[in-house]
Amino acid sequence: MDPILDQFESLMEKVRKNNRGADLERIREAFRYADAQHAGQVRKSGEPYITHPLHVAAIVAELEMDSDSIIAALLHDCIEDTGSTHEDIAKLFGETVAALVEGVTKLTRVQYVTKEEEQMENLRKMLMAMAQDVRVILIKICDRLHNMRTLQFQPPRKQREKSLETMEIYAPIAHRLGMQRVKWELEDLALQYLDPIGYKEIEQDLAAKSSAHEKFMVSVQTRINDRLVAEGISATAYGRVKHIYSIYRKMYTQNKTMDEIFDLYAFRVIVDNIPDCYNVLGCIHDLFKPVLGRFKDYIGTPKPNGYQSLHTTVIGREGIPFEVQIRTQEMHHTAEYGIAAHWKYKQGLSNGSLGSEETFEWVRKLLESQQDTDAEEFVRSLKVDLFADEVFVFTPQGDVKSLPAGANPIDFAYSIHSAVGNKMTGAKINGRIVPFDTPLQNGDIVEIITAKNAHGPSRDWIKLCKSNEARNKIRQWFKKERREENIATGKVMLENELRRLGIPVTEAMSEENLPHILKKVGSGSWDDLCAAIGYGGMTAVKAGARIKDELARLGKLQGGKVPAAAPQSVIYPGMAGGAQQSIPKAPKHTESGIVVEGLGNCMVKFAKCCTPIPGDPVIGFITRGYGVSVHRADCPNAQFDHTDAQVAGRWVNVAWVEGDLESYHTALELSAPDRDGLALDVATVLSTLKVKVSGLSARRLEDSTALVVVELEVKDKAQLTQVTNKLSQIHGVSTVKRVTG
Ligand code: MN
Hints:
By secondary structure, the protein is α+β, with helices and mostly antiparallel strands.
C-alpha cells in the first residue's frame, strides 16, 4: 500500500478513536487537497512534504481536538508554501478553517532575533495575542513539536535556532496552557541540540541504571497497589523516571550530580474521586516516611494553569526519596493536555474547575458569560483575549515593544525616547510610509523617520496618541516651549504665595538678596524660577518656603514683617514669640518621611488608628504640643467639618518623601473560619516574605470566625499589597484588610 495513504488511514484511525463526532469526510477532502497542493515538494528528510501535515494532524487528533482543528492542521502550510489563498480554503472548508490556517501562517512569519529575557516574555505574549483563536496556538505548538521531532535533518545552525526558540517561547506557552506532556517533549528535544553532551550524560546515566530504576519502581508500585487493594480503593499506580530536562535543570541550578538529585522518580496514583485522593495520601504517608515541608495541595489551590494534584515526597525502605502525585482521572487528563483537554471534558468548563487565577482569568470570564451556551460552541468561540489590551510590535532592530491596543507610530516613537518623538517627521510600518495615526498590529515592524530640524510635535498628537507616556512627553514639550506663558503664570503664583507668607516681593528681589535666594532655590534667574513654577517643576509653596528660610537666615525678616504663623507656634513652642531662631530649612531628607506643607522639618507622628504608609493619601493634624499627627485621608478620625474654621484650620496638607525611612508600622486584619494552624500559616507566609512582624494576635468570634491582627513593618503600599495578596491566598482566609479607626 502507498505509505502516504497508509499514514492517512492511521490518522483516521486515531480520529475515530479520539474524536467522536468528527467529520471524517471533510477531513478526507482536506487531506486530498493538501496532498495535491504539496505535490512534488519534499522535506529535508527526503520524505514527501505531505507527511508533515499528516503528522501534525495526528498530534492534534491525539489532543482530542475538533474536526476544524484537524482539517486546519492538514492545511496549515498551504498558504505559506503552496499557491493556496485564504479565499480558496474558505470556499472549500469554511471561514473558520481558513482563519485557523491564516492564523498559523501569521505565527510562522514572526521573526525572532532578540535574546533578552524580558523580550522573550513579550514575544510569548505577542504570539498568544496574535493567535486570537486558542486553536491557532495549539496547532502551531503541534507543528513545532513535529518539526522538533524531525530536527536531525536540518543544518546545525537551524537546529540551534529552532531549539532556542522552542525552549524560550513554545515550551513556556505549552506550560502556560497546561500542556505538560507536550512541554516535556519540547524541552527534551530542544535540550538535545542546545547541550548535546549534557543531555547524553543524563541519558546514559539513566540507561546504565535502568534495571535498578526498574526494580525500585516495581517494588514501590507493588507496595502501593497492595495497600490500596487492602483499603478497597480503586486506583492505578505507576512510577516513572522524571524527564531529562527536569533532571538537567535541577543538576545545573542546584549544582548537583545525578545521585544527589532529590527526587528522580515520580509516582502517580490515579483515583476515581477527590476524597480518594486524600485517602491515598494517608496510605502513602503511612507506608513511607514523608519528607517534611514537601506536601503540596494543588487540589485545594490549583496552579495558575489549571493543574490539580496532591504532591508529596516520601522516603522508602531503600532510603531513596521519591515524589508521589495523586489525582483523579479528569485532573490527570487536564495535567497532560491542559487547555486542549477541555475538548473532552467540556462539562468541566461549566463548573469552573479550571482554576480561577490570573492566567486562566480570561477563560473564567468567558465561562461566566457563556454558562448557558453549548459547551462545544463555547470552545469553538474561545478567543485568546488574554492580551487584548496590548499590542506588540518590533523595532527595526528586532526588539519587541508592548503598547496599549490601538497605539500608533506616535506612541511607538515616544516609547523609544522623547527625542525620537519630538523629531519625528515620518513613520514606516513593515517598510511602507504610513500616516501617524495608523493603528499598529501585532508583529508589525515600525520605523520612525526623524530630522534634526523637525518642528516638534503637533498639538493634535496629544489627542491622537493612545499611551499616557506619549501624551505626557508631548505635554512636556509644550510646557518647555511655552516659556513666556509659564513665566507669567509662575510669577502670579509665586507673588501670591509670598504675600501669604508676608514677604514683600521687592524684598525678595532686591539686589542684595536675590543672588542668595536664587542659589537657595537652585534657579539661574527670577524668570527661570517663575517658569519652573509655571509648568509645575516646582510648587509655589516650596519656593516660598525656601525664600522665607533664606531671608530669615540673612536676618531680613526682623521687625515684624513676618507674622508668626500660628501652626508653627504650636509645633515649635519655643518660636512662638517670633523668628529669633532660624526657621528649619526645607528638608531634602526628613526624619519621618513626611513633609508638611508650609512647615519645615517639624515633629511628625503617625496616627495609631490607621497607621499610614507611603502610597496612602494622607492628611496631617496639628496637635497641641506634639507636632503633626498623620492620618490616612480615608481614616474615620480624619473626617472633619470643613466649615468649622477652628478645626479645619488645623488640618494641613502633608506628603511623603520617598526613600527617607526604611520601614513603616502598620496593621492588617484577617478573617477566616477558625481552624488549627491558621495563625501559624499566617506567620509562615510573613516569614517567607521576610516581613518584620511586631505583633500577631488571634481571637475567635462567636460565629467561630477567627480574626487575626498582624502588626508589621513595611516599606510602602506596594509591599503591603504584596503581603495582602499572599495572606489572602492562605487556606480559608476570606478577607484581609487594613486596620482603620
Ligand atoms: Mn508546518
